[in-house]
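One record is given unchanged without comment:
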Amino acid sequence: MTRTLRNILGATCLLAVVACAVDIAFDMTKDIPVDATGTSVNSVVAVDLAQYQVVQDHKGNVQALQLQSVEVKVTAIATTNKATSVSGTMSLRPAGAIDATQDVAVGTLTNLPIVLLTKVTLPGSAALDAFLLQQIKGDGKFSAVISGSTAGGEAHLTINALMHASMSYGTGL
């Protein structure tokens, strides 16, 4: 092998390593208290991506993000709860937004029974991917919102949202 050919092959391999991207799967979880004295629900909970180590470890090099799904699960029911089910939407809201006009829908809850550990899985979407990537590249703050109504009376429960995601990031080599 000639010296020139070795140099070209070496440079090509070096460029391949420098251009490497790594995919990593991770989960983010957030409890959303749902307290409604009537049958209307509007729960807004702040989310800060700085609380998730995997996001902080790779924040500066994130190239793409995909939200595969969100598991929505009833994890606590207060003794004062009278509601038997909840219907409505789960969405993500940018920091500073004062109403739902900028919300990005996660999915619809349709008569979700208020029974301990009841779970529904909502699929991800390109709109959610873009929203979360924008948040990672920004200050990482937004809100998770559940809005809708309950059947059976006032609601006093906790819903856990478990987001399954993956991100691609450059190795920086």
In short: The first strand starts at residue 21 and ends at 36. Residues 21-170 form a domain with the Jelly Rolls fold (CATH 2.60.120).
